[in-house]
Write a structure and sequence with these properties.
The chain has about 170 residues and is an alpha/beta fold. It is built from three helices and eight strands; from the N terminus they run E-H-E-H-E-E-E-H-E-E-E.
Length: about 170
């Protein structure tokens, strides 16, 4: 049986409500807008109330209504919502995006470095390259026999960092 054709469309993370409100919200939007070109999608008040009811049912206790922060990524969205006891992550927790060229990766990384000059909340794991040989049994599924994974990690106030990857294929 072939695998399902699943398409990931969002990542949802809980944060302290104050981190996605007011000036902190604007700072998140400014950073992710500048570095990754993400844009805000605003839900209406009825959605906010309905989502608070859904969260109450999911966590098993009353959850106050806090407008979530939804950032459109171009292929899906990042959904940040407020909880009094938000998720706890480690420095290695992340989600990833693939870019089409190394230049795109470099541009994103440079934008993050520029922002980091004035904001200590930016976390960057610099660009790295890991090389892999594709197993012979899998080579028909890939464009070449070897690949370099070029990546960087960029974090800013969200519980998880964003990994940006580019694949350099060769024989």
């Amino acid at each position: 049986m072939p695998p399902f054709s699943l398409k990931m469309n969002h990542v949802a993370m809980s944060m302290p409500p104050a981190e996605i409100a007011g000036s902190r919200r604007e700072e998140l939007l400014a950073f992710y807008g500048r570095v990754f070109k993400w844009t805000e999608y605003q839900e209406d008040e009825s959605f906010n109330e309905q989502f608070a009811e859904e969260l109450t049912a999911l966590v098993g206790e009353k959850v106050e209504t806090h407008p979530p922060l939804v950032m459109l990524t171009g292929i899906g969205f990042v959904f940040l919502y407020g909880l009094p006891r938000p998720m706890v992550t480690t420095p290695v927790d992340h989600f990833g995006f693939e870019v089409d060229t190394e230049e795109e990766l470099d541009t994103i990384l440079e934008r993050a470095r520029e922002w980091a000059k004035d904001d200590p909340d930016v976390r960057i794991v610099d660009k790295a390259v890991s090389s892999y040989e594709i197993e012979e049994a899998l080579q028909a599924q890939y464009p070449a026999k070897k690949v370099d994974l070029v990546n960087t990690y960029i974090g800013y106030r969200m519980p998880m960092a964003v990994e940006v990857q580019w694949y350099r294929w060769y024989d």
